[in-house]
Amino acid sequence: MCGIVAYVGEREALPVIIKGLKRLEYRGYDSAGVALINGELQVFKKKGKVTDLETQLNEQELKSNIGMGHTRWATHGEPNDTNAHPHYSLDKKLAIIHNGIIENYASLKQELISKGHEFISETDSEVLVHFIEDIKANNNCTLVEAVRLALTKIIGAYAIVIMSQDDTNTLIAARKGSPLVIGLGKEEFFLASDATPIIEYTNEVVYLNDHEIAVIENNGLKIKNTEDTPMTPYIQTLDMELEAIEKGGYEHFMLKEIFEQPRSVLDCMRGRLSATDARLTLGGIREYAGALENAERLIIVACGTSWHAGLVAEYFFEEFCRLPVEVEYASEFRYRNPVIKEGDVVIAISQSGETADTLAAIELARSRGAIILGVCNVVGSSIARASHEGSYTHAGPEIGVASTKAFTAQLTVLFMIALRMAQRKGTITESKFREMLVEMENIPNKIEKALKLNDQIEYISDLFKDKSNFLYLGRGYNFPVALEGALKLKEISYIHAEGYPAAEMKHGPIALIDEEMPVVFIATRDSSYEKVVSNIQEVKARKGKVIAIVTEGDKLINQMAEFVIEIPATNEALMPLLSVIPLQLLSYHIAVMRDCNVDQPRNLAKSVTVE
Ligand code: M6R
Fold it and tell me: Is residue 389 located within the same domain as residue 470?
């Protein structure tokens, strides 16, 4: 899970690559490197962030109209200068950048060592470029053919770009399992892990498919597959604004993305939901709408925050569609021997659309006859393409590693799918259907209102920023929100946090409570309100410090909790769209106050494209 970018054309390649790498840093930031043709094929690389590399490169006179760069999230070999990409071949005439994992690299490495190859790094990627070099020498073939032959022998996942000192205007790229987009400019070409480094230059793109090899030379693009069959590039026009991927005056992407939520939820509903017309249309689910309607059970697979969205969706589908739902961690599902029957429907939720475990889970389910519906944010992503049908969340690019606006957009899409299915199945009355549409349409304004709590939450954050542990408790629809609140805090502030169903507290976690323990209750007015009030009292009786997210106007909890954060009222099912907002802000402010790198927390990457 790394970011790759490459350029060939009339411009200076280095600034294009450095800017592109900064946009891709969410994919990994252990080290960065570039390759350029500056008289000869030169590689510069360094442990740390792209800016560290940039500072080093600024001291040199580097001119090249072709180049490639890489930002790494370490898999094989610790993060250091040597393991950073690009990697040279033995004769230093080839260089490679790679995102993915070559699973059979160890046996290939042994074979190459026995032929006299020496390796500098511990990476699987270096083995691949040596392997290509070896094949080229032994078969006396072109570089493209050597790449093709090598890829037929590789097990694993890759998006690669290769440059050669002997073909100074050529970029060769290939993918299997890791994303790669080709940008088509005027007599110039771009390659990147996603479209964000490309969009300011061109919106014409080609998404490379698995097992395809792209050759960019002589101002032209040719694509073939690893079986040597020429493929016709499918050119798409992207609808993405540059400002959508920049910070727009916010200190961090995460804060920008939190504040974008009124807009992103609205964008997600746009053209799909109209309360006035009592209409709900999901253009992406047509052919398989009947399959979902008739399914006897639904399986939801996802990871992390997307899994939390899946938990909320379980309640949607059960409540509105009366459909049994199983919500699975994709990473567990893929390694069990899950019972899947022909006609089962699997919903895969993924912001990036590239999460390896989720992709593998749907491939498994699909091979056993399930219908796959994807709920992805990134258009053209691997999961979107591996699904039969689906609905995009249209939240816009999410750059901060901590997922925020993708979560609320996922909830919005899942709610719309469930409600539409309920209407088709006849498990919801027309008046309830209309009532829910009206309430959903009000959500963006209510999120706007919840965001006004920012100052109060910043104040509370200051009082709790030095705590070592947090407990998050909620019931019903707010239980997954408790999990999400705890995950947000853990991942960006490095404070230990646990989310629990509030009633489960008595079965263990209550032992943790003392005067040092902050307990965040999501205690909005819903069907379990009274029960949650009792849970608050149990915590108070043990001197825990209660921060309660309550419905506007709540008097009762006000008298018990140290702090109450009042959010607008809404229907119980839609409350997660509002109750998560203060939790996102709480984790954000605490992380900033602890001087943590909010957008790029340690050890994490935005999309986890390895197991
Ligand atoms: O791109 P995906 O939605 O498939 O990603 C799944 C998780 O890796 C992701 O939600 C992760 O947990 C986030 N860092 C949470 O903020």
Answer: no
